[in-house]
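Two quick folds needed for the group meeting slides. Do the first one here.
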Amino acid sequence: MATTTEKVSSRQKFVESYISLVQGISTARFDEFREFFANENDLKLAVQEFRNQLQEALLSKVNRLWDESDIDTNVEVLEKMKAKAAGTTIKMWRPTGKSANEQVRPLDVNKLKMSLKFYQYQLGFQKERTEELIYNIETMRAKHQDVRTRRTHLLQQMANEQETFDAIRAHQRELDHKVNVDLQI
């Protein structure tokens, strides 16, 4: 476990980085405002006041964030992880040590199971639909056969009636002819 001096030192490093960042702001960046100041010292004092206020604002936010986020504990955990991995020279992209195929195999199996369920459902649906269509086709075939049989029967009946009609007509013509012959006498 890290001591309080280590906690302070990591926090102090962070604070010192912010301070050096703010103190690195040069007076040259404020050259466009130079004409508003009476002399060079006034400009330098204004820039120093800007640096001090910026540093104060940044450090108050950093300190509040540091305390609220429990960064000390997180830094401690990171240091432990760093110490634990210090002897390891091999980069481990996957903490499990398994290959990518082995690691995603359960996901692939679940996906395949879901696909299988879907295809089984589709197969059942298609089987029901096919059975319905087969029944409808067989029914329509039976009706079609009945219509063909009835048509054949009716055509035969029409042919028989036509023959009977032709025979009667021929007999009527004969009789008409005999009547005409008898009337001419």
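Then this one, please, same format:
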Amino acid sequence: MNTMVLFVPQQEAWGVERMGRFHRILEPVPQRCASSLPMNTMVLFVPQQEAWVVERMGRFHRILEPGLNFLIPVLDRIRYVQSLKEIVINVPEQSAVTLDNVTLQIDGVLYLRIMDPYKASYGVEDPEYAVTQLAQTTMRSELGKLSLDKVFRERESLNASIVDAINQASDYWGIRCLRYEIKDIHVPPRVKESMQMQVEAERRKRATVLESEGTRESDINVAEGRKQAQILASEAEKAERINKAAGEASAMLAKAKAKAEAIRLLADALMQQNGDAAASLAVAEQYVSAFSKLAKDSNTVLLPSNAGDITSMVTQALGIYSALTKPHAAKSPEVTPPALEVPRPPRTELPEVDPRNSS
């Protein structure tokens, strides 16, 4: 029945005709969980973080602040109760098409707060429903700008873009969107399988590349090691040769100095008294020692014709020595060695002997 004041139940719609013609459809007024309207009892206590919108004689009068407030029971009426707390709204799952024509099922969570109770009451019929629809449409439009790979990589930038788009439209409704978070993204099974195959191929590619890079680095390290080993070996051989040459030079110098010192001492000894006799004795000893070693080194023996005449051999050696020491004796005439008295052997003709063999 038409009783002038009607209450349409939830999930129903009543069609109204005026003068036999269609007039309008009565729908249930959406009520929020925090929008229960209190009765005007003249003295009201407004809770914290709530704003009560008061109408006087059907027009907006004022917004009651938290605490003690007074109203006129007949003229004033509490029309809206707005919660100033942060509101969490679940965005229903919806389908969206990406830039590369892949259909996704995506849902999210919206966090918002009423900043202006007057705009939230008179700017839009149901601010929460309006923001939810705006979030869904904005999410579809933002997903259409991205490819499937970028949807997963740029999730944070996608959330920020949706929040900016919602705030630009909800500013006239007195609502501020704080953040938007995508809860879950459902991919079609075939697309999911292709993505899995792509991930596996990418991992195999990375493994192959890493293995080839490891082999290359190993070959480079082995070549560098061989190069350094050859360089160090050549440097060691060079240092060894230098040290050996230095040692041989030092040994030759030491031998030369020792020989020079021995010659000097021998010369000094020969210039003293009875020096020629000592030289004769030394030559005789060396002669006998040389003949004793002839048959030990090889089976070929070369003997002079007068091998048994040791006196003639000593006389010949002393003659050679006297011929070599004449210039030295001419330079130092003040020292005259005594004459060595050696018995003269009978005169014999000596055969010519090769000096290299007689030595």
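Slide caption for protein two: Residues 30-35, 328-359 have pLDDT under 50 and may be disordered.
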